[in-house]
């Protein structure tokens, strides 16, 4: 099962960075949303692949035409929060308000119910797992926020499995599609999205994809934009992580989509026997 997803945000939505943290900061930068979305639309049309788009509520308000086009093309729309803040830096009230606003903004544009969520930076972890309960309270049925390995933002190392399953919380159950992992010398690592995808050579990516029974991809429009500006105040490590491999990433994804079948989240959800899926109890 290969699932194709995109997190719809602009190139300057860099997490945990002072000069790009707030909505006020974002006004200093020129948007590249339309240019990069056109690139993604073209690739999906050429390869006839389905995908799920996790969109910011902020994008729905700033660029409703982008959300409308995603919907008009028949792609599934989910929420990626409202203002792209790390979930573990929010308290319960802040998280709930951000979630509600994102859902409302997206539903106002599409007229369709938002059923799935992914936290920015996969930032739901042990310390803020209460956020999963708030997802259920706000009508979210499917979560894609769990990153079952170590990571700078988020990381739920003790989650227990890296395949679709149930999360049992507050007497209710939430469907979880975590990020998939591969193993090297017994330790989990990620390859299927973002900077990880850009860093690995294509032959390695092909081998890992072929060997995996379940792959959850996550790409951003900026992952395929080699001409985007470079933020001047990034550390060398962050600059490498944010910009390495931009020149080859589009060709890599095109190769994957031309040679492999991918589905969107909803199609994958319908294909799973949920009665036999594992259960993680919080």
What would you say the CATH architecture is? Answer: Alpha-Beta Barrel
The CATH class is Alpha Beta
- Topology-level CATH name: TIM Barrel
Structurally, the number of domains stands at 1
Strand-residue fraction? Answer: 5-15%
**Share in helix:** 25-40%
Number of continuous helical runs = 11
Distance between the termini: 26 Å
Q: Care to count the β-strands?
A: 12
Radius of gyration, in Å, reads 18 Å
Characterization of this structure:
- Helix content is 38%, strand content 14%.
- The protein is an alpha/beta fold and 282 residues long.
- The strands form four sheets. Strands 5-6-8-7-12 form a five-stranded mixed beta sheet. Strands 2-3-4 form a three-stranded parallel beta sheet.
- The mean pLDDT is 93.
List the helices and strands and how they pair.
Blueprint (H helix, E strand, L loop, with lengths): L1 E2 L1 E4 L14 H4 L6 H15 L4 E4 L1 H6 L1 H9 L3 E4 L12 H19 L5 E2 L12 H8 L4 E2 L21 E5 L2 E5 L5 E3 L2 E3 L4 H6 L2 H10 L3 E2 L19 H8 L2 H14 L5 H7 L7 E3 L1
Parallel strand pairs: 1-11, 2-3, 3-4, 5-6, 6-8, 7-12
Antiparallel strand pairs: 7-8, 9-10
List the keywords.
TIM Barrel, three-stranded parallel beta sheet, 12 strands, globular, alpha/beta, five-stranded mixed beta sheet, about 280 residues
Overview in brief:
It contains eleven helices and twelve strands. By secondary structure, it is an alpha/beta fold. The longest helix is centred in the middle third of the chain and has 19 residues, at 92-110.
